[in-house]
């Protein structure tokens, strides 16, 4: 991504639903098996629910059994940025949209091949575009 979307918190709060704001701006997590995309099987592109940037292709989605949409790779490496997260007494790698900085979820090293990664993403942080 070549540019970063910069808005005030008041602008983001006005544009996003309260639930999306809590997850994407405040780093929240939706309950497992509650999001609209955890078992969704459509073909297309998953975009950032805050700015529309393309994040994941449906061909990289898999059922991890965790209750959140899971992907083994982003649509492009530059679509995401990682940030160390030491909350809850553990070390995880938070995944953010590189254009907006939205909290999307976390990435773990227990996914399928060919990457061995599991991008565990909140449904509310995504919008789906059908092919």
Detailed description of the structure:
This protein is mainly β. It has one domain (9-130): Peptide methionine sulfoxide reductase (Metal Binding Protein, Guanine Nucleotide Exchange Factor, Chain A), CATH 2.170.150. It contains 2 helices and 9 strands; from the N terminus they run ααβββββββββ. The protein has helices spanning 9-15, 18-24, and strands spanning 44-48, 54-57, 61-62, 70-71, 80-85, 92-97, 103-108, 118-121, 126-130. The strands form 2 sheets. The chain has a 6-stranded antiparallel sheet with strand order 3-4-8-7-6-5, with no helix packed on it. Strands 2-1-9 form a 3-stranded antiparallel sheet, with no helix packed on it. 31% of the residues are buried. The mean pLDDT is 94.
What layout of secondary structure does this protein have?
Elements: H1 9-15, H2 18-24, E1 44-48, E2 54-57, E3 61-62, E4 70-71, E5 80-85, E6 92-97, E7 103-108, E8 118-121, E9 126-130
Antiparallel strand pairs: 1-2, 1-9, 3-4, 4-8, 5-6, 6-7, 7-8
What class do helices, strands and sheet pairing give?
Answer: mainly beta
CATH architecture: Beta Complex
Stretches with pLDDT under 50, minimum 5 residues:
none
| Main sheet attributes: strand count, strand direction, barrel closure | 6 strands, antiparallel
How many runs of DSSP E, i.e. beta strands?
A: 9
User: How helical, in percent, are the residues?
Assistant: 10-25%
Question: How large a portion of the residues is in β-strands, by DSSP E?
Answer: 25-35%
Protein name: Peptide methionine sulfoxide reductase MsrB
Keywords: Metal-binding, Oxidoreductase, Zinc
Active site: 120 (nucleophile)
GO molecular function, one term: metal ion binding
């Amino acid at each position: 991504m070549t540019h970063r979307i910069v808005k005030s918190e008041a602008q983001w709060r006005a544009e996003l639903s309260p639930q999306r704001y809590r997850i994407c701006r405040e780093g929240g997590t939706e309950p497992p098996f509650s999001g609209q995309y955890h078992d969704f099987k459509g073909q297309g592109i998953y975009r950032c629910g805050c700015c529309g940037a393309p994040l994941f292709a449906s061909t990289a989605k898999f059922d991890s059994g965790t209750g959140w949409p899971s992907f083994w790779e982003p649509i492009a490496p530059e679509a995401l940025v990682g940030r160390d997260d030491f909350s809850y007494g553990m070390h995880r790698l938070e995944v953010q949209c590189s254009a907006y900085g939205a909290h999307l979820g976390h990435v773990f090293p227990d996914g399928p091949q060919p990457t061995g990664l599991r991008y565990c993403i909140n449904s509310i942080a995504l919008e789906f575009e059908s092919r």
